[in-house]
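ok so I'm stuck.
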Amino acid sequence: MVQILKSVAAQGVETEFIHDILSASIESPSASFNQKKRLELVESLSDRELEVLQLLATDLTVPEIADKMYLAVSTVRSHVKNIYGKLNVHSRFEAVIKGQELGLL
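replied:
not stuck anymore, here's the structure
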């Protein structure tokens, strides 16, 4: 089954389902799919969201991040919410881990 999915992916039909199956298999998913997925996420995160994500990796609180970026706390919270949604995570810790896995940090 893995070989079939790899051949389908090689033909340009790369879906989240195929990626999940290949990730769960002993063999690793194609590097091109991972690179494509990373580029999509990087492009979907704004420059400000990338900056906030980098600061989430520190021990700064949201109000401290807001001060450092000269933004309102509510604006930083909006950026954090957007980051969580785009990275499909539910916490600061998960966002930082996902950012590291994707090479954003």
